[in-house]
Amino acid sequence: MSVLDLFRLDGKKALVTGASSGIGKRVALAYTQAGAQVAIAARNHEALDAVAREIAATGAGEVLPISCDVTQPEQAAQMVDQVTGEFGGIDIAVCNAGIVTLNGLLDMPLEEFQSVQNTNVNGVFLTAQAAARAMVRQGRGGVVITTASMSGHVVNTPQQEGHYCASKAAVIQLTKAMAVEFATHKIRVNSVSPGYVLTELVEPYTEYHALWKPKIPLGRLGRPDELTGLYVFLASEASSYMTGSDIIIDGGYTCL
After folding, report:
1. Is residue 251 part of a domain?
2. Which of 53, 68, 116, 193 is buried deepest, with most CB atoms within 10 A?
3. Choice among 21, 149, 167, 239 that is catalytic
4. What is the DSSP letter of 174?
């Protein structure tokens, strides 16, 4: 086996949440290109259908769109059940769904704080739990990957998003705890912490882009496709001895 073969995902069954745009959409495409069967999930079914058609048009492979609100336990469980039913199992779960708003903590209503925690933390937990339970039943192990953020390591400025920072710090520590608990079942759990990446979520905040760039040693925002290699690595046998790690991809932002 060559070293490049270690990165292949042939025969693997994968689920990617938050896949109607941004990082999740690019990860789903990368996984199909690497040989996996992929289910994509988000709240917006129309957007998911469009992504499914877009990926199919590339010739990379078919994907299965599943409409799901990952903050709802029943829907998260049903989502994983649909994946295992359609694909005959699940080997990889990417817990990527997330939201952000910009508001100072002094003025933030409790409902706004809770909404971000509900999607970014509870949604990750419920997706990972449902997927891990299925992997335990299968008895062959698996991989869970969470999308955290450099915001789990630093406080972002000049924008105010303390609720987001808190949620992503929670994801990083939750990932480590799951890695320890799930290890006996041969389930590996790692997180990815992107910096400022020009996704559909970040594009509207144009007034901040010029303020962020001088703080990034590479001098620019990242592209979503610059993260996909790491997601493939973490899902593949190339990272078979890796669990409980958080990897920052931020152009060097957190070095300063």
Report:
1. no
2. 68
3. 149
4. H
Whether 68 and 19 have beta carbons less than 8 Å apart is answered as no
- Which domain covers residue 189, as residue numbers? 3-246
**Which of the residues 164, 196, 231, 253 is marked catalytic?**
164
3-state class (DSSP) for residue 17:
strand
Choosing from 12, 13, 25, 168, the catalytic residue is 168
Examine residue 28 and state whether it is found in any structural domain, yes or no. yes
Annotated active-site residue 168? The verdict is yes
Catalytic residue list contains 164: yes
On whether residue 256 sits in a domain, the answer given is no
Residue 197 DSSP class: B
Mean pLDDT in runs of 10 for the chain (256 residues)? 96 98 98 98 97 96 96 98 98 98 97 98 99 98 98 97 98 99 98 97 93 98 98 98 98 97
CA angle 7, 226, 65 (to 5 degrees): 75
Question: Which domain CATH number covers 39?
Answer: 3.40.50.720
